[in-house]
Write a structure and sequence with these properties.
Blueprint (H helix, E strand, L loop, with lengths): L2 H14 L4 H10 L2 E6 L5 E8 L7 E6 L8 H15 L13 H9 L16
Antiparallel strand pairs: 1-2, 2-3
Helix pairs in contact: 1-2
Amino acid sequence: MHDEDVTRVLLAATSGWPRSADEIARALEHGTCHVALRGDSDPVVVGIGCHSITRAGWTGPLIVDESARRRCVGQALLGQICRDLMIAEFDRVIVADLPDDAARSFIESTGAVASTRYQRMSKQL
């Protein structure tokens, strides 16, 4: 990935997906981040797919801009993550933190099956 693309991804993550920006930055540093761009002269980030650097075999952020959904961007990014993990000799990928029913439906459409349900809990500070 070119330096200007890394900058473009970091800016897009910070402005569009701030909750995932730190993990995306770490994945970029470690080469575990794939990006979908639209346009040639001034590309726009329309998708980011990472695998976790702290949890082997897990996906990190998998984000597709609403303007690019239902155009196989998510499938392409997830495919690259799976390819990386297969090369590293993992036999499965764990996709956690599905934020809504649309994300869950997308992952299920790829053939994934639920093996464990994770529950997010929070405490007011």
